[in-house]
Structure formats: structure tokens, C-alpha cells
Amino acid sequence: MLKRMLITAACLPLLAAEAAPQQASLHLTFEGLRSQKGSIRLCLWRDSAGYPDCAHGAGATKESVSAANPVIDITGLPPGDYAISAIHDENDNKKLDKSFIGMPTEGVAFSNNAKISFGPPKFDKARFHVEGDTTQTLRMRYFL
Prior knowledge:
Blueprint: H1 2-19, E1 24-31, E2 39-45, E3 61-66, E4 71-77, E5 80-89, E6 107-110, H2 123-126, E7 128-130, E8 133-139
């Protein structure tokens, strides 16, 4: 009986470690900024609902980082698939400015550096897996 209790007591920390939910972290670096003015505004998406427009992304995690230091760490994430959409909000008006024909006048970036052609890339093209410590480098693109 004593032997069984000792074995059970020795296994309790292992059981607790298995039951604890795993958390991941995401280290993001932005490259190709044409200036250090303003902020980078990003949305981290778990699914495609609302993607890529942060204004309509009720379920997205929204973060901002200074364009002068374009690096951010997001911690405490559940492991899984995510996508990122970001803008270089040079005038800090909290929105993506566009020309009269709808072309962005500020920089945009997407995870996986997904290609942009006739609009933003689909969620599946920007999706990537986060587990443990994950790193993404996003290249900012300017059209005007």
C-alpha cells in the first residue's frame, strides 16, 4: 500500500504537466519600411472570419508597434494555425489610407509574405503554424 502511494505521489507532477495547457509565443519582425514614421498595426487571426480587415475583425488580436522599432513579441498563444495582416500606418490615423482608385497609399504586409495580386491574399496563403517559440519576418509592401 505504501509503495503504491509513493508511486502515485511521484507521478502527480507528470500528470499536472500534461494537464496544463501549452502556450506558444510569436516573435514578429517587419522589414522594408520606407520610413520610421507612425505605427505598424497588425491583426492576428485564428480563422478567416473578417480577414484581413482589422476594422471588421472582431475575433482578431489587434496589436500596434512603433515603426521606429518594428519588432513585437506576442506570448500566451494557444498552439495552432494563425494568419497576420498588417499596415504601416505612417500618419497614425488608425486606418489604411487608399487612393481614389482604392490602391493602398501606406504599406501592407501578410504572414508568409503571401503574394498580393488584385487584392489581399487569401487566409490560406497567409496561414502558418504556431507552436513553442515561432518567428515570422514580414516584408512591408508599398504600391504608391
